[in-house]
Amino acid sequence: MQSITTELVHQTITRRPAESHKGTYGRLMLIGGNQNFGGAIIMAATAAIYSGAGLVTVATDASNFTSLHAQLPEAMVVDYRQTAYVTQLLQTMDVIIIGPGLGTDQLAANLLTTVLTHVQAHQRLVIDGSALTLLAARQQSLPDAQIVVTPHQMEWQRLSGLKIADQTPTANRQAQQHLHAIAVVKAHHTTVYTNDRVWFNPGGTPAMATGGMGDTLAGMVGGFAAQFPDFTNAILSAVYLHSEVADDLAQSRYVVLPHQISAEIPKYMHRASLA
Amino acid sequence: MQSITTELVHQTITRRPAESHKGTYGRLMLIGGNQNFGGAIIMAATAAIYSGAGLVTVATDASNFTSLHAQLPEAMVVDYRQTAYVTQLLQTMDVIIIGPGLGTDQLAANLLTTVLTHVQAHQRLVIDGSALTLLAARQQSLPDAQIVVTPHQMEWQRLSGLKIADQTPTANRQAQQHLHAIAVVKAHHTTVYTNDRVWFNPGGTPAMATGGMGDTLAGMVGGFAAQFPDFTNAILSAVYLHSEVADDLAQSRYVVLPHQISAEIPKYMHRASLA
Amino acid sequence: MQSITTELVHQTITRRPAESHKGTYGRLMLIGGNQNFGGAIIMAATAAIYSGAGLVTVATDASNFTSLHAQLPEAMVVDYRQTAYVTQLLQTMDVIIIGPGLGTDQLAANLLTTVLTHVQAHQRLVIDGSALTLLAARQQSLPDAQIVVTPHQMEWQRLSGLKIADQTPTANRQAQQHLHAIAVVKAHHTTVYTNDRVWFNPGGTPAMATGGMGDTLAGMVGGFAAQFPDFTNAILSAVYLHSEVADDLAQSRYVVLPHQISAEIPKYMHRASLA
Amino acid sequence: MQSITTELVHQTITRRPAESHKGTYGRLMLIGGNQNFGGAIIMAATAAIYSGAGLVTVATDASNFTSLHAQLPEAMVVDYRQTAYVTQLLQTMDVIIIGPGLGTDQLAANLLTTVLTHVQAHQRLVIDGSALTLLAARQQSLPDAQIVVTPHQMEWQRLSGLKIADQTPTANRQAQQHLHAIAVVKAHHTTVYTNDRVWFNPGGTPAMATGGMGDTLAGMVGGFAAQFPDFTNAILSAVYLHSEVADDLAQSRYVVLPHQISAEIPKYMHRASLA
C-alpha cells in the first residue's frame, strides 16, 4: 500500500497551456438529482466546475434546474427524461458522472443502462452514489471504458460482496480486479484500488462526515478526469486535494460543508500547478 | 436557577472520533414550511446542517424545494403531503423537528398527529413554532420520547396556560413537569426547564429580535441533539451558543440576521471542542 | 432648507431596549413585484429586513416567492391576488410599503385602492415606484394615516404636476402641502418635504444611479418607520444612511449595487446607535 | 496591429457626472437563455449590471426568471415568447445584446430576425453566442446600427468563412469590412477589428477557458456600450478589463469562474476612472 503524495498531485496538475480554450479542458456530463435528492447533483456539478472542467452539462430532474442555476449559472442543464437528447449528448462527452442523488427507481435504472450501453472506450466514467446500488443489483460486467467507482464502505459492501469488517486491502484489491474499474473506497482514510496498486490517502477529517461530501468528491474526480491525461493520477489527485482542503478548513470548523470545499479548489489547484 | 456555563458547553461538544461517518452524526428530519412561511424551515434546516447533523431531510411544501436547494444543497427534500413516505422516513430518524413555518391548518395538524403517533422512545423530538400552537389546542399528553419544546413567551402562555406576567421560574417549572418535556422558554434571557433543574442562559441581545431567530434556534437544538449523547446538555449548549454568536455579531450590527448566526456555528463549535 | 445631520440620525437610531422581542420592532408588509419586476420587491424587502424591521411579509406575484426566499428566508410571503387574506393581514401591520415593481395594471390599481381604503390612522404608509404613477392618475386625496411618498423627479412631476425644471424647493413645498404626505424627492441630492420644513440630504453619488436603488430606499424608509417613534426622523435617517453607505462603497466602486447597500445597513445603524 | 492600452481604458471610463440618474447610464436589453442554457444569460446580465448599465431587462425563457432573480434582483425580466412586448421594449433601448444561451431553434431565429428588423441606427447591438451561428447561416447584410460581433474562433469561422488556421489579422480585417460590424475575435489574445484598425488585447489567461466566460464578456461589452459615447473605445475597454480582472484572479486560481469576474468589475472601473 502506497501513500498518495503531494509530488504525485503536483505532477498531475500541470500549468495550463496558453493556447487553449474551454474545449481543451473537457466536456463533462453529470447525471443525477431526482425530485428528493436534487442537492446532490448540484454539489457534484459545483465541484466539477470549480475543478476546472471546461463545459459542464447536468442531466437531472427538471425541478432542479432553477436551484442549480441560482447558484451555478456556469452549468448547462437537460431534463434527464429526454432520453434521446441525453443519449445524443453522451456521445460528445469526455467524462460522464452518474449517480449523485439519482435514486434507485426505474428511471434511474434506465439511465444507468443508457450510460453503460453507450459509453465509449475513449470516455471516462465515474459511478457514484445511488448508481452504485443499482450496479450492485445487476450481475453485469462493466463495458470497455475508463471507469472509476466511488463507494463509501456500505456501498462497497453491496458492490463487492465484502462486509465492512472484511474490507481489507487484499480483499478489496481482489474485488476491484473482478470489477474491472478503479475503486475509490471512501473511509476515514480513503483507499484507492487501481489495476496494479493500492493507494492510501493520508488526509481526512471527521469534520467531513456530512451529507454531500461524497457528491463533491465525485464532481472533483470527474473534473480532474476531464483535464489530466493520466486517469489514475487524476483520480488520486482529486481524492488527495478533497481531503486536504477539508483538513485545512477543519482547522477552524467543527463541520465542513461540501460547498465550502468546492469554493477552495481553484486555489489549491493553482498552488499545486506552481510546484 | 443555574446559569448555563462555557464549561458545560465545552464538555458537551467533544472532538469527533476519527473513525466515523455521516451516519454517526445523526439522521434528522425537519417538518414545516407551508406556502407562506417557507423561509422558516429553510432557516431551521440551515442551522441544523451548519450545526453538524449528519443527514438532513426537509419535509415541506413542494413550493419550497427550489429556494431551499438554491442555498442549501446539503439538505434532502420530501413533499410533506406524501404522508406514507414521510411516515416511513420518520422511523429512520434520530431527531425530528416539527413546527418552523408549519402553520396551523388541517394539514399541519395532521402532520403533528403523525409525528406524535409514530415517534419512538429512542428518538428525539423538537416541537417549535406553529406546532406549539397546535399542541396547546389539544388536551393530549405527550408520547414517550425525548421531547423538547421551544416556545417564546406567548407560545408558552398558550402551552402552559400561564400569562406572560405569571411566567416565573417556579410556575414555569410546574408547567414543564406537567408537560413531560424539556421547555426552552425564549426571552431576552432564555430559561430552560429540565426534569430536575432550571437553567438560565446568560447571553442574548435585542439585536436578535427579528423574524426567524427562533427557527434558527430550533435547527441548532435539533442539530446538537443529533450528535451529543446527553439530550439536556445538547439543548443547553445550543441555547448558549446561539446567543453567544449573536452577542458577538451584535458588537458591530444593529440587527443580526438568522442566516448570519448559522454561518458562524461551525467555528464556535470547533472552539468549544478544543477546550 | 436645512441639512439632515449626523446628529439627527444618532438621536433617531437609539439602542434597542434589552427587554424586547420581534414584535417591538414592527410588523411590515411590502406590496409589489409583478411578473416582470419581481426584483424590485426583493430589493425593497431586503432593505427592510436588514434595517431591522421585526416581522416582514411580502405580498407579491406568486412567481416571485422562490427567488425571494432563495436569498431572504427571513421574509414571509403572500400571493397579492388573495385579496381577502392581504386585506386581513393589512390590519395587523405597523407599516405598509406599496409600489416597488408593482406595475400599473388593473391588479396593481386594485391593490393601491385596497391599501388606501383600509390604511388606519395609526399606520405608516410608504408609497413608491409604480404606485406613485397610479396615484398621480387619480384625483383623490390621501387617507388619514402617516404617509410618505418617495418619487424620483419624473414621478414627482406626475404626482405634483411640476415639470422637473420647475421643481424648486418652494414649488415642491407647496405641492407637498397639497398632497398631505411627506415627500422624499430623489435626486443627486435628495430633498425631503415635511409639514413644516424642507430638508436637504448632503450625501449621494452618481454610483447610485442604477436600477433598484430607489426600491432599496423605500425598504429602508419602511424599516426605519417600523422601529423609530418619530416618523419624520425615521424617514430622514433612512435617506441619510442610504446615501452615506453608498458614498462609502463608491470610494472603491464605479457603480454600487442595491443589495450591497442593504448588506451594510446593520453596521451603519449600530454605529449610529452608539453615538 | 495596435495594442489596447491602459491609457485608452482610462480615457474611456470617465468619472460619472454628479447630476445624473439611472437613465443616463443606458437602457439595455439582453435576449437569450433557453431552457437548457439559462445560465448563459444570467452570466451576461450579471456582467452588464456590474458594469454599470443603468436599467437592464432580460428577455429569456420564463423558466429562467427565478434563478436570475435569485442572484440578480437588479434585472427586470420579460418572457421572450411575448413577441409584441419584446418588440415594443426594443424601441426604448440604447443597447441590445442577443445570443448568450439563445440556442438555434426557430424561436431563436425569429428573435434574431425581430432584432435585426427593428434595431435603429442610433442603437448599439452586441451579437454573441448562438446568435452568431444563426447569423452565419443567413446570407443577409447587417442593418444600419452600431453593431459588434463577439465570436470565438470557431464561431468566427462560421461567420467569416475563414478556417481557424487562416484567421490572420489581414484576412480577419477583410472579413470584418465585408460584415459591416466591429468584430471581437476571442482567443488566448483577443483581437478586435474596427473599421480602420486592428487591435490586440495584451491580457488573457488559460484560467479563463471555462464555460460562460464569453457570456460575461458580451455583458461587459453591452454594459460599457450603454455608458460611454465612443462605441469602439467602449468595446476595447470591456475586452481589456475582462482579461485584466481574469489575469489578476488567476494569480491565485487555477480556473476563474465567470461570476467572479463580474463581482470585480466595479472596482476596476473605479480605478480606471480615477486615472
Automatic annotation (TrEMBL), chains A, B, C, D:
Catalytic function, reaction form: (6S)-NADPHX + ADP = AMP + phosphate + NADPH + H(+); (6S)-NADHX + ADP = AMP + phosphate + NADH + H(+)
Family matches, as CDD domains: YXKO-related
Required co-factors: Mg(2+)
The entry's keywords: ATP-binding, Lyase, NAD, NADP, Nucleotide-binding
The UniProt record lists the keyword Nucleotide-binding: yes
EC number assigned by the record: 4.2.1.136
YjeF C-terminal domain segment(s): 5-272
Positions with a binding annotation for (6S)-NADPHX: 40, 101, 152, 215
Binding site for AMP: 186-190, 214
Top EC category: lyase
Subunit structure: Homotetramer.
Free-text function comment from the UniProt entry: Catalyzes the dehydration of the S-form of NAD(P)HX at the expense of ADP, which is converted to AMP. Together with NAD(P)HX epimerase, which catalyzes the epimerization of the S- and R-forms, the enzyme allows the repair of both epimers of NAD(P)HX, a damaged form of NAD(P)H that is a result of enzymatic or heat-dependent hydration.
Protein family according to the UniProt entry: Belongs to the NnrD/CARKD family.
NCBIfam families, sorted: yjeF_cterm (TIGR00196)
Name of the molecule in the record: ADP-dependent (S)-NAD(P)H-hydrate dehydratase
Organism: Lactiplantibacillus brownii
Gene behind the chain: nnrD
